[in-house]
Predict the 3D structure of the following.
Amino acid sequence: MIVLLKRDLALATRAGGGFGLAVAFFLILCAMVPFGVGPETSALRPIAPGILWVGALLSCLLSLDRIFALDYEDGSLDLLATAPIPLEGVTALKALAHWITTGLPLIAAAPVFGILLHLPGQATGWLIASLLIGTPALSMLGAFGAAITVGLRRGGLLLSLLVLPLYIPTLIFGTEIIRRGAEGGDPTTPILFLAGITAGVMALVPFAAAAALRVNLR
Amino acid sequence: MSIWEYANPVKFMRVSGAVLPWLVIAAAVCTIGGIAWGFLTPEDYKQGSTVKIVFLHVPAAMMAINIWVMMLIASLIWLIRRHHVSALAAKAAAPVGAVMTLIALATGAIWGQPMWGTWWEWDPRLTSFLILLLFYIGYIALWSAIEDADSAADLTGVLCLVGSVFALLSRYAVLFWNQGLHQGASLSVAPGERMSEVYRYPLYLSMLGFLLLFLVLVLVRTRTEIRRRRLAALQAREMRA
Amino acid sequence: MSLLAVHELAAARGGIRAVEGVSFTLDAGEALILRGPNGIGKTTLLRCVAGLQPAVEGRIEMAGDSVAYAAHADGLKAALTVTENLRFWAQIFGGGSVEQALAAMDLTALADRPAAALSAGQKRRLGLARLMVTGRPLWVLDEPTVSLDAASVERFAALVRTHLAGGGAALMATHIDLGLQEARVLDLTPYRARPGRSRRPAGFNEAFA
């Protein structure tokens, strides 16, 4: 199973893999916001957690359609479906590869972009924590959306339409952690909720994603 | 004879065709009757005449949720028992549900403007309906994007299942989120709580009317879908022969 | 002993049965070639056997994890080298030697080239070399000789013969003569599905026709 993860990581980091594009998009997004709302700290500080989370979410969305589409086109998915690995495992591993190549760089970059948006210093730790807990769910739900739209020629836009509403609970609890952390409150409750969502998603969504893949393969 | 007999397309067409005219009459009488009766009720001492939109707003909101539940059940029947009419009924119901959600949101905005002084408030209840609308849109878009009917039925079924879980999850997340913003300061005027009988009976009639209206629409749309599938099937057979 | 037994199989494409009532068995060391006009359902039947799509009716009996499937798409990654591509599938399937497979399809000289640099025929050869590294006994091949030249077709026939001699079996759909005299041929034309019989519908197109 680890071979599949290694191959996906190798493909993502080699030429044409699109590695780092998500972070670049995240940077542009965070740089655009002050042009829209004004450079004052008083304007930026309250919306910084939300902007960072929405930005991470949208950056994550960019590369979702590649999770299965390339393997579908070149026939690898057919071969993986006949391989001794269960398809549920394939979807979970592909989501994990997506998280490592997209989610982790976003998390690493987020504190820097937090400075751009005047995020208070004591909230930075909560920003990283909330993204670490929440982004795996984004990748897994994205893999589900990618599995549903893999057979469609122009599935990209539809994919966003299907996946974004599924991101709402994660977004709500993720930003709530930072907001409470920044105000010096107790973020335990949203952390537990967010972790619960991520755990539930990791446990159950691979089955839905594999079911969707099987439908698209037949 | 079991209830599954009606999942046979031919039988469904025959029975629904016989029932439909009566349903149309009943739906028209109840909907128009309920709204007209509601219009003749006395004005509320606090809300004035604006209260009368409740006879549109509440039934539409009720149906918006019920239709999604009906789609979930129909999707489950399709995924488990493979009854084709069930999948088509779920497809037929989705746009009706989306329009009901829109009516609930629009009438809510029209009611909210004189009452709360704003067209839109990020109240948990309103927000939940907006999210429900997003789920309806995604579901409808997926149906229309997939050409192969069998794949479309399966994939939308799976989406409906996962979507239901997340719609429910969003409902409670939104409750949490809004409390986080302003402590329990909800502007929502919960209808039904202190509603006098003058309003209650026309509201019940109107709700029954909306339910019947939904049944009429979903039957008509399912019949259309069945005819469309039959046309496609005949064309496919001709191509193959 | 028989590696694959198919009983009264019906397979559907686009919600309509394409073939029905197909029965055959495939023993170790045997090859079976499916023939029939375009659209009869050769690909559909092969995908059923490979487990990629459910059969509408009938039974397919075989040991679990015994199929190696190869179709029009070779499952190659342009950014990986020939060896890397092959090693990946060898590790996924837990199968045989990459070097032997490369030698068998005359790809040793290209081992370190990226797959993007290969010609269509070379890609095809790499896709077929993949069958060897799966270590699976039952090869299910859909038009395996597309874009191969005469010498490569011969080489492929030799590969299949070695596989059969080693106790394997092959089920394939092909239009050209591979020169495998020992292979049996099954013409699917008589098994074309006829509409109108009352039965469980294969999909929307049968449920409403």
